Amino acid sequence: MRPVPVENACTLIDRVGGSEVQTNKFVLGDVGGMRQTGSLVAVIATFALAAQWPARSQDAGFEQHLQNGVTAMRGGHLDAAALEFSRCAALQPSSAEAYFNLGLVRFQQARWQDAIASLKKSLALKPAFRGANLFLGIAEYRLEDYAGAETALKRETALDAAGADALMWMGMAQMARGELAPAAAALDKAASLKPHDVDILYHRGKVHMLLAKESYENMYQADPKSWRVHQVLAESFSQADRLDDAVKECQEAIRLKPDEPALHQQLGDVYWSQNRLDLAESEFRNELQVDPHNVAAKYKLGVVSLEQSKPEAAADLLAQVLEKQPDSAQAHYQLGRAQQQLGRNEEAAKNFRTVTSGAADDSDEVVRQSYYQLAQLYRRMQRPADSRAALEKFSELKQRADSAQARKLEEKMKRAAQEPKAQ
Q1: Which of 24, 109, 122, 272 is most solvent-facing, going by the fewest CB within 10 Å?
Q2: Tens of pLDDT along 169-220?
Q3: What is the DSSP secondary-structure string of 344-384?
Q4: What is the DSSP letter of 154?
Q5: What is the CB-side half-sphere exposure of residue 385 using CA atoms within 13 A?
Q6: What is the pTM of this model?
Q7: Which CATH architecture has domain 9-143?
Q8: Long-range pairs for 190-199 at CB < 8 Å and ≥24 separation?
Q9: Where are the domains of the chain?
């Protein structure tokens, strides 16, 4: 009988890296509650087929037990698969692959200690066995042996520097040990390798939040009366929608450091959120006194001026913004609004068209609103055909956006319905 065909195991590792959160424990694929054993069993069974069996002659009994084990894994018969791979190991005690497959079965059964023992035997026989350290590290993580998990996963990343899953689990182990900086580095690298992996992105975001919290705590301990402490508190209150408290903290930060760039802008943002436009306008002006080159503050001052029916001042400010940022769709749109209020219809239409023609993504709200403004503007300019065309495009984009929003809501409700209810 010919040896089992060799397949690149790395591609299979990529298919078993997902994680989910359960009371601060991380579960590989379906391992945690064994809710759906079929999918992960199939992947691990394929992994068993991918094991790089040596080219030496193998006896028929070994081959038969191997094939039986793989078949049992694919069928979800894990006890039978474990028995067959145990027989493989008994027939060829020097076979790293036999112990590896046995370790995968025990892994799937969530028999972590047994999985660790088999995977360690495999690695003792073949230290460079790709994938073995990944599963070993995850099993050790599940037993809360975070130091052992980190060691195993570091070995896996040394063998495969592009292994995003090993980097993710290593970062998780380091995070559990309080090693936040190296955890962030590992998860950042994992995210660069798999930029759309939601598990990696979740853990990356978590570690950076923990790093930020640690940094703020250290800052407070270093100088609890620092203006920076008040700035951070203001940001926290703003995010919690405690805007009155945010105002007080901003004011205190400004009292302690009146000429610090960005503080007046931060207070202006809070006032704007409260719809206190006159105070927001004043703070954005104060910001420009401190930092005349702050384009964001100038843009915000222009929009607030427009909202207070000061289109001439708004148009001047927004034109200055576009001198620095000529590709800003938001600035073109707001300048178009100001020019429209001033009766400068051709100039306004040009700015709205700049938004619609230069948009890489016509799903943006500013693009839809530009079509709407064009429809109204063309109607006043006695251009009914252009007005109808713009209004039809607005309606098409709005319908598309509404449908996308409805789909997101439906998916959210489905996910909520599938989540296990609290006992």
Answers
A1: 24
A2: 999 999 999 999 999 999 999 999 999 999 999 999 999 999 998 999 999 9
A3: -HHHHHHHHHHHHHH-S-TTSHHHHHHHHHHHHHHHHTT-H
A4: H
A5: 0
A6: 0.64
A7: Alpha Horseshoe (1.25)
A8: 190/164, 190/165, 193/162, 193/164, 193/167, 194/164, 197/17, 197/164, 197/168, 199/17, 199/18, 199/19, 199/20, 199/168
A9: 9-143
